[in-house]
Amino acid sequence: MAAASCTVWDSVLELTKSAQVKNCDPQLWAIQLSSNLNSAGVDLPSVELAHLLVSHICFDNHLPITWKFLEKALSFNLVPPLLVLALLSTRVVPNRQLHPAAYRLYMELVKETCLFFFSSNRCPKPSIDHEINR
Predict the structure, then answer these.
(1) Taxonomically, which superkingdom (predicted)?
(2) What is the distance between the alpha carbons of residues 85 and 45, in angstroms, rounded to a whole number?
(3) In sequence order, what DSSP letters do the residues of 119-131 get, joined into one string?
């Protein structure tokens, strides 16, 4: 089982590197990735994929296209958003002086994720009425 698992993640990394070199449309990359993961029987959103993508980006492949891939993986629900933010926070925030662009992109992801959670029913909305009636 571990060998098959390695093959899936190796193919994901190869797909990502190839798309990066070819400057592939991030949406097409996400569609292909989703198809590959579904064919391999990977449950989505995938914790393993989150770790792989964050490790790939920070900081050897810190390029705008790789951040776009990560953003598409989030929008396609391929990775758990809060886990991605947690993984990035431990790598990007301590290195914000060395990688200011990464920090800016990280903060954009934080903003988009917060907006998504608060605009959907995934997160309870703060209620002033509830607080007043306590």
Answers:
(1) Eukaryota
(2) 14
(3) HSTTSPPP-HHHH
Which two tokens mark 44? 């989505």
Residue ranges of the chain whose pLDDT lies below 50: 1, 128-133
Q: Which residues of 41-79 are buried (b: 16+ CB within 10 A; e: fewer)?
A: ebeebbeebbebbbebbbeebbeebbbbbbbbbbebebb
Measure Cα distances from 80 to 53, 84, 99, 101, 130 in Å.
Answer: 12, 6, 24, 23, 30
Other CB atoms closer than 10 Å to residue 106's CB: what's the count? 22
* pTM for this prediction: 0.81
Give the pLDDT confidence score for residue 124 in this predicted structure.
Answer: 53
Residue among 64, 84, 63 at smallest CA distance from 73: 84
